[in-house]
Amino acid sequence: MSKPILVIKFGSSSITHTNGEVNEQTLEKIAAQVASLQHDYSIVLVSSGAVAAGKASLKHYKGSLSERKAAAAVGNPLLIAKYNHYFQKFGISIAQSLCERHHFSKRESFLQLKETYQELWRNDIIPIANENDVVSNVELKFSDNDELATLIATGFGAEKLLISTSVGGLLDSEGQIIRHVAEIDSSILGVVNTDTSSTGLGGMISKLTFTRLATRMGIKVVIFGLDQANGILDALHENIGTVFEAQAATLSARQKWLASGSVITGRIVLDKGAVKAIQNRKSLLSVGVLEYIGEFEKGEVVEILDPTKNSVAIARTRYSKSELMASKESREVANADDIVIW
Prior knowledge:
By secondary structure, the chain is α/β, with parallel strands linked by helices. It has helices at residues 12-15, 24-37, 50-54, 65-88, 102-105, 107-122, 145-156, 186-189, 204-216, 231-236, 253-261, 272-279, 321-326, and strands spanning 5-10, 42-47, 93-99, 125-131, 160-164, 180-181, 220-224, 242-244, 264-270, 284-285, 289-294, 301-305, 311-316, 332-334, 339-341. Strand 12 (301-305) and strand 13 (311-316) form a beta hairpin.
């Protein structure tokens, strides 16, 4: 695609009132600002709010899994209709994209999703993504839409990821917005308030977790608020919110997908020599393995740990755990091309 890709994520608390009703003034502001950017960017909106918008239709809503799924089924068409209403004022068509975890964990499914988005962009249509809550398996669902937005941004090679929040950015111990973060480390994580919003699933810890992944993949992230008249435009130009700098990344598109989109099924603990070897871009051999944790099959993705069980990489395996443990000879557990070092 000739245009850079911009991913913008809106949380439930950003676009709905506390009673769950869609905040139409906010949607109108979103549509106006995004419309002004469409000429220069291929845009994906990731929007929460379906459950919040639909729960008022359920009698005695308590927030159980089945009730959340039912609320999403009611709320999704309500929410997308509101978006459509305001984008149509600018002559822009939108498309609903309900995503599930396997759309990213399976390379073939991801490439199909990518082709669909590219076709939408060629026709000046903006996709609005949300998790398919109605059918998502609880064990394989996204942790929240912060993760979905990050997987889209990293998988598509976005230039920037903008994440809206009700507090307007990352706050320091005195409640002031930290304007710039060069790298997310323990000192940054230590200032986080662990509260979540009343309407959404994620809090600042979730946002920082996925922001760190995005920045490691070479994507600049801005966490911002929508309170200002031109919050999206101001965030894009880094005039508001917290700006997280992108880290140097030399990964291929396939490696970025592997690092961000894969479902990890097991873990492998290595000795120091094997850790050093893979960090020097060598393949992983079973002779350097100290322990296999969990179950995994051939071709599945595992997390690679050092002797102290710190995560150092992920890898796609060439053999199942049972095959590796049964073999009396050293085998290539993962080829260097299928290993992504953190």
